Every structure is written in C-alpha cells, then in structure tokens.
Amino acid sequence: MSKLLLIDDEDGIRKVLSISLKSDGYDVATAASGQQGIDLFQKEFFPIVLTDIKMPGMDGIEVLRRIKEINPEVEVIVITGHGDMESAIQSLHLGASDFLTKPVSDQLLSIALKRAEERLKTKKTLNNYANDLWYMVKEKTEEIKRRYEFEDKLVQRSIDGIVATDKEENIIIFNSAAEEMFGYTVNEAKSDMNAGNFYPEGISQRISDVFAGKDRDASDIFVGDEASITAKSGEAVPVRFSCAMLYEGDKPIGSVGFFQDLRKIKHLEKELIKSERLAAIGQTVAGLAHGVKNILNGLKGGLYIVNTALKKGAADGAAENKIDYSNVSALPLQARFLKQIVDISAERERQQKKLKTGWEMVERNIHKVSELVLDLLSYSKEREPEYEKYNPNIIADEVCDLMESKAKEYDIDLIRDIDREMGEIYLDPKGMHSCLLNLVSNAIDACVFDLDTQKHWHVKVMTRRKNESGVAFEVVDNGCGMDEETQSKIFAEFFSTKGTRGTGLGLLVTQKIIKEHGGTMDVASQPGKGTIFTIRLPGKKV
Amino acid sequence: MAKKVLIVDDDVDVRTFVSSVVEDIGYKPELAKDGEEGIGKIKEEKPALIILDILMPKESGIKMYRALKTDSQFSDIPVIVHSGIAKRTFLRSQKALDEFGDQPVPEPEAYLEKPVEPEELGAMIKKFLS
Question: Which residue in A521, A413, A417 sits closest to A464, CA to CA?
C-alpha cells in the first residue's frame, strides 16, 4: 500500500479527501499545517505529498520547496483555489508534479495520483537503470585499471630498461630499470628529454625518419645489437639494444626501446678471463718446473760423471806414485813396469775422455737453462717494441747469413727469395730478427729430424710486398712436417717436438712479437712433405 | 768379457749418465735412442740387462717392453724400467693392455722413477748381474 501525506488547514477537506484516498487504497497521514506536514515528512518518508497552497503560517509553496529540498524525488501535488493560476505555475516551477483546483473532484484526484504513481515507477526504473549503468562503468573502469596496473607492473618490474615514446618522440614510458641504467628519474626523462637522448645514434635518426614518413620499411631496426649508452654520470654502459615501432593500423604512433644491461655480463667475462689467466700461469709454472727439473737432472748427471772421473784420476795418481823405480834395471821387472805405465796412461786417457763427456753434459745443460730463461724473459716481459724505419730484407739476409753454416753442416740448401722492391716499413728490427731466426732454425730442425734420407732438403726464406700496406715473410721447408695434432699444439706453452732440446717457448715468443706488430702468423704443414710459416705484417712503405 | 747393459732412452743426458754408471761398476753399456733401435740392439748385442725408458718417440717403451717380454728369446733378460712416469701409472697401462686381449705380460724386474741416484742405480745393476 502506497503511503501518502495530506496537508490542509481545513478539517473538512482533510476528512473528505482522506476517506476518498483510503478507498483508493492509500495509507493516508494528515497534517493541519505546513509546519506540521514538514515535521511529519522529516520523520517518515512519503512518496506522494498532497498539499493545499493557501494555508496560514507556512503556505503550500513553502511546503513544496522544503520537501523538494529534503527529497527531490517525491511527487508533490498541489491543490489551488479556483482560478489561482499564478500559484499553480509557481508550484510547477518549483517541481510540483501536478496541480488540482478546488473543489477537488474524486476523478481528477485519481488521475493525478495515477500519473504520480506512474512517474514514480518510471523514476524508479530509470534510477535502477542509472544505478546499473554506474555499477557497470565502475566495474569496467576497475577492470581497466587492474589491467593497466598489471601492464605497468610488467613494464616496471622488467629487468631490462624500457623506454617508449609517442610520435613526437616524447618519453611516455621510462621504467625503473631504465632509471637505474641511465641515472635519470622518470620525471626528468618525461619532462626534459626525448628519444634522441636514449636511443643509440643511428637508431634515433631512423625512428625520426619513420615518423616523418621518410622511411617506410623500418623492420630492420628491430634487431638486437650491442651498443653503448651514456648515463647521466657520464659512464658508458654497454647494452644489448632492440627497438620496435608501434603502429595504429599502418600509422606509426610511437616507438619502444629495450635495453639489456650488459655490465654484469661484461664483468663476468672479465672475471672469466682473469681466472683463465691464473690457470694459464699455473700451467706455465708447472711446465717451467718440469723443464727446470729435467735440466737439473742433466746437470746432476754431468756432475756425477765429472766427479767420478776426478776421483779415479786421483786414485791413479796415487797408484803411479807407488811404482817402484828402484829395480828398473832388472829385465823381468822392466816388462812389468812398462805394462804398468801403459795401463795407467790408457786409464788416464779414459778418465780424460770421461771428464770431457761429463763436462760437455754440464755445459749442454747450462746452455739449456740460459736458453729457457731468455725465452721465458722475452715471452713474459712486456717489452715495448722499438719501431724504426727498416727494410725487412735486411733482416732476412742477416738471418740467412747466420744460419748458412748450420744448414751446410746438415747438407740443407738455404735458398733466399727476396723481393727487392720491398722498401722500408716501420718495424722492431730486433724483435723481427728473433722471429725469423726462430722460424729458420725450426725449419732446419725439421729437415734434420726428417727420416727420409732420399730427400734433398731445402729451406727457403721469402720476402714479399703484398700490397701498399703490408709485407710478408715466408719460411718454407721440405722437412718432416707436422700432423694436425702437432700443429694444434705448437703455440701451447712448453710444447716441444724436439724432446729435451727445445724449450717449448720459441714459437710463443715469435707469435707474441708478431702480434705486437699487429701482424699474423699462419702455418701450413703436411707430415713428410714439409711446412710453410707465413708472417704478415701491416706496414706502409715509408 | 764384461756383461753388456742396454740403455734405451731418448734423452742424450740420461744415456750418458747411465752409461757412465754402468761403466764405473765394470759393465759395458750399449745405447739406443728409441724402441725401434732398442729391439735391434737386443738382437745384435744380446745384453744381460736392459734399462728402459717409457716415454720415447717411435716405438714407445711400453710397446718395446711388451714385445720383448712376449718373445721367448728375450723374455728372460731382466728389465729395469727407468722412467719419469710413476710406477703405478705404468702398471695400470700394462694391465689395461693385458685386458685388451693381449697376452698378459709380467711386471718388470725392477722399476726406478727418474731422477735416480747413481749409487742406487749401480747397486740395482749389480744385483741383477753378479
């Protein structure tokens, strides 16, 4: 049952209308004055209020205004005196939903009430609808917010620095990894900077071209490459950079760059190199200890031989002193005496020979030690090469002159093939001399070690000017050659094919010097056929 | 006639040293610088004792040792292995070769790890030859 408030100062009207309204099914409350009506309304809610206009004290217009203030949704129907058009219009202005003129007919009252009911119903539906809409909007907004926050977190929590721009190249995203990498805060980046401040140079230009429509196919700028960016502090940070254009349809609307910080990786790489170097030092020391031990054993052996020879010599001297010279004249004794003398001198000769063998052994090993030490020194010393204007042919000639006699000794032809158009280049003559000497001496050894005695051995030393900015030395032999395994080891420390004769450092030293010259060394070899070592040096004619 | 001792070693220093020790105690040294030459010298010189290095070029000591211990002509000649590698390593390699289907080969009569003192070497040689 609908509730209704009826306000009228006339007792009779209140009674008549109440009866009529009750019979229409309303739960009617009445008030005899405006003020009483308002008091009642404030205590209780009435969806429909029926009020007389002309009342002593608070009139109907005021009642209408107050009620609308309290609840604008309430349907207020005013009752005016006959012909009081002005009040009717005023009340409609103030939001009354209908007006009835006195005397109030039951029929018109019913119609007015029905209309009010309908309006209330429509309002309610409308309200519900608006409410639903509001909830829907709220829900969707929250979902969008959640999604945005999720994506924002995704961007923010990324380990990679992410920088995104709009099509004016203003920064719109600058995540915390980017802040850390570049050293700028997101606010600094967004307010004062643009893509050019962060993207590597070439990329930044390409992106501008794409935005300007000058560059249509931007697919190749997405590739991730190593690049270097400059942080706020001035530090150059190594990064792997990749980039993408953002499109709406086929219109570019922005760009995004991903920066992977490579500092940690670079640091680890350095650590790795350091630990490898330490391992190499360990190996070097082990190899060195082995080399020294062998030489030491040789020295000890030599000392032993020398010592025994010396002891024997002393013992023989004593035996000689014991020879009895007093009976020399007696003939039978003479033969024995002579034999004694001969025996002693033969023994002495043997001891002499032994002494020589032992001493040679000592000398040989002292030579080995000094060779090892010299090689080790030139290998480990950070010697600055002393460059000067020099003709490489002079070095080739010097080395050939030096090795000529050794080659002849083993019946090896030492052939010179010199490019006389060489000219002078900047090089370290001492360093290159030792390189070439090492290669030629190796080549001669390769012939000496060769078991194929049918061969006529040769070693060829060649110099060539390769082009305007390079020269080459080549040392070719037809000696024993190397199998692949040996070739793979020749630059390893303390590796030697010459048994105890080599230090296992010669080629290492040579390689080091060539590297210092910015040059390269290549080897080609075939077992039984021979070996070619090629040194290439950069160097303009000077 | 003094008994012959065959010294097989690729290092000239070792050959010189060992032959000096052999001479000093009254035997005749014979020298070979690798396994191949060593086998030849055994046939030619019929040594009473062999002092054998293991790590050598060409026919290694391991191969030469197995060759002469599986040949009834020479298997009675005592062998002193004189090597830079440890005895355990050598024996393990022999065992591996035994299991590989080769004829099993007895352990060498003596094993000396380099470097060896002349007195020790001399005493060892005497033990086999006197």
Answer: A417
